Amino acid sequence: MTITTIIEPFKIKAVEPLRMTTRPERQGILAQAGYNLFGVRAEHVLIDLLTDSGTSAMSAAQWAGILDGDESYAGARSFYRFERVVKELTGFKHIIPTHQGRAAEKILFAIVGGAGKLIPSNSHFDTTRANIEVSGAEAVDLPVKEALTPSLVQDFKGNMNITGLERLLKQKGREQVPLVMMTVTNNSCAGQPVSMGCIRRVSELCRSYRIPFFIDACRFAENAWFIKTREPGCKGRSVKQLAQEMFSYADGCTMSGKKDGLVNIGGFLAVNDDDLAQQARNILIVTEGFPTYGGLAGRDLEAFAQGLEEVLDEDYLRYRIRSVAYVVDKLDAMGVPVFKPAGGHAVYLDAAAFLPHIPPRHLPGQALACALYLEGGIRACEIGSVMFGRTDPAGGQFQPAPMELVRLAIPRRVYTQSHMDYVVECIGELFSRRDGIRGMRIVAEPPLLRHFTAVFEPL
Ligand code: F0G
After folding, report:
1. Domains and CATH numbers, the chain
2. C-alpha count within 13 angstroms, C-beta hemisphere, residue 286
3. How much distance in Å is there from the Cα of 219 to the middle of ligand 1?
4. Chain-wide mean pLDDT for the chain?
5. Rounded to whole angstroms, how far apart are CA atoms 274 and 66?
6. pLDDT of residue 394
7. Which residue CA neighbors atom 11 of ligand 1 most closely?
8. Nearest atom of ligand 1 to the alpha carbon of 256
9. Fewest CB atoms within 10 Å of the CB: 115, 131, 241, 450?
10. Model confidence over 113-135: pLDDT tens digits?
11. Strands 455-458 and 440-444: what pairing?
């Protein structure tokens, strides 16, 4: 008999204690945080699934790199190692380190954005959208329609609607569309992967219009694993080769190393165009730092370079993707409405189906996320009408998001299977008592990225 159990392919060298709170304590903590889980102190959270960003456990080799980092202001050895690793992976000519992904976005869209411009993507993540909007440009999401049906099982629900893109490019041309973006995996569409075929076709379309094509590469390795395991003809190739092919179709990328870089901080902008690179470095020096460190310490660059090599380990990726699917399969078997198939970095509960008695304007995702914290000290993140909906400041019109999801993002190499069993049990318990969960309303909100700081109250 062959052994089929997939284990965590690491052993644990340093541990961090977790502390349980009581339900009455959590009740008080929630109220004090204005029912916004971003306002809860991490020490009051038992299992923190708010994000997979910057929350990875680093390896012994990465920690060794931290000590070995070269902290020279200019031309540090750690930069050159980082540059070599990123160039080998992506093939791009200019590698510009930034302190995290959104800093790369900010620089890119400060150059190519601006009033009257449109930036299409399969789906922009919230910081990308915000950086585009801050520049005066418009962020356009073009997901495939299958992405909007959580229960539909399909291989590449993260893909871009290519017909929609073609129509947009035909109408607006390169005068109004300075760049096309592709987010892999598609975080705003439940971490669903994008196929190599789709990346290739979008690249060809962009080239025919002479419009640069960029990849938002935060989760490139997870995406490449899905391509390897799902796309015809890819099984025999290494994840690294597939990642290299993905990048070969693009003219540049933004990357948050806090995801598949397996580091707690770091990012980069990579481009082929010399003029764009020059403009980006000029902004970088003003806002981030000298081009050979760009907002990071030498030790961060060292750990980042090491992380980018480790993340391509296929035993790691098999375990990583399976550990997310494990939770989705268990929830699905219990009848809990969950986005299918499992994505790369997170489990997404379908709050609209979980709480059908709460209409979108009463924020079912926020209600479910708060209930989950109250139930088990688990912190998740609403990705629905709080994050992507709009409320007219005059108090009238409410515009819902296309889906009401609650994301349980799984930090890399941090939690074990029994932590996940606990999460599944808490969600099951909540599901059996779902009729008692009430909606919420927003009491106060900032003008941009409201989900981070809005204040809520239960209805
Ligand atoms: N692009 C995508 C697809 C992301 O998921 C994120 C961050 C960013 C860009 C920005 O990178 O945080 O390093 O500035 N996503 C995190 C999340 C915050 O929780 O999904 P950053």
Report:
1. 23-52+313-458 (3.90.1150.10), 60-310 (3.40.640.10)
2. 8
3. 10
4. 96
5. 31
6. 65
7. 101
8. 13
9. 115
10. 999 999 999 999 989 999 999 99
11. antiparallel
Rounded to the nearest whole angstrom, what is the distance from the C-alpha of residue 206 to the centroid of ligand 1? 24
Report angle CA 163, 168, 170 to the nearest 5 degrees: 95
Q: Identify the pLDDT of residue 1.
A: 73
Q: Is the peptide bond before 341 cis (omega within 30 degrees of 0)?
A: yes
Q: What are the residues whose beta carbons fall under 8 Å from the beta carbon of 72, sequence distance 6 or more?
A: 298
| 218, 263, 449: residue to mutate for ligand 1 pocket, most atoms within 8 A of CB | 218
What lines the ligand 1 site, CB under 6 Å? 51, 53, 100-102, 125, 127-128, 183, 187, 216, 218, 256, 258, 267, 409
Q: Which residue lies with its CA nearest to atom 19 of ligand 1?
A: 51
Closest CA to 258 of 222, 325, 322, 307: 307
Concatenated DSSP letters for 39-78? GS-GGG-SEE-S-SSS-PPPPHHHHHHHHH----SSS-HH
Residue 395's pLDDT band (boundaries 50, 70, 90)?
Answer: low
* Contact call for residues 75 and 82 (beta carbons, < 8 A): no
Ligand 1: centre distance to CA 125 (Å): 7
- Whose tokens are 């050895």? That residue is 77
pLDDT at 305: 98
DSSP state of 59: P
- Two structure tokens written together for 431: 């599901």
